[in-house]
Amino acid sequence: MEMLTPNVYTETKIRGCNPSIVFTTEGSVFIDTAQWLTTLLEMREFAKKRGPIKYLINTEGHIDHIFGNHWFAGESLVIGHEKLKDIFWTVADEKPCYEYSVDVLERQDPKGLPLMPSEEDYIVNYPQITFSENLTLKLGDTEFFLYHTPGHSDAQICVHVPKERVAFTGDTLFSGCQTWLHSADIKELLKTLDFLEGLEDVDYFVPGHGPVVSRDYIPKQRAFIYEWIAAVAQGVEKGWSLDECIARISFADRFPMDIGQEETMGYVQRTNVTKCYQYLTKK
Ligand SMILES: [Zn+2]
Hints:
alpha/beta; Metallo-beta-lactamase, Chain A; 2 domains; globular; binds zinc ion
């Protein structure tokens, strides 16, 4: 775990999202829950030593951000965007989510396997508090500003904590690893990047995946998305079909996949081309 401020901790070196903790004078707020169960449970215990975990915020509904919600059920209130329910606990890479998670544990976190409940006992812990545009949460001495920041997914949000000068962007930002556009609305994503760039009182941007970055990373993320669009636009101009674009365009050599997700490189390249193609051709 990495300490960003005496009240903010994040873990960027495990598979899946970067789960994080913000401490206040009245307990803590947890942001996103990871798939490596042993690390998640260690973080949960670490947080509880300083008081109750009052809230759990999900920045999106993809499995790598919500899988561990089970372990907060009945203890912390879950907060997310109102559209989160639409994709919460749906299929992941064409595998049912429970099966997908067990497979991850078997291969990458075997010590977590015995901690996994049976499928019947697993609690799909949906948000109890939802919002559409913005939500302000006050806990003890700390204010949390939650913004709807669609693009990577419909239900995407950003959590800004000005007191700690930190913004948790979820998968609007990927640093040092491949950018997933598989469920993206590219037009919205570009608007959201502008929004984040204009957010004041932030020193640390905690991305969905990869190391913590500063504001100067946002133009780089934007530029990479434009590179994807430009490469596909050249294909479209040459009259290539979507399948031809998929066969010929790849940025696989640019960044590795995030930790533990090496096998998804082909999927990401294919779906990124598809999203850019749809964006350009409206097909
Ligand atoms: Zn993610």
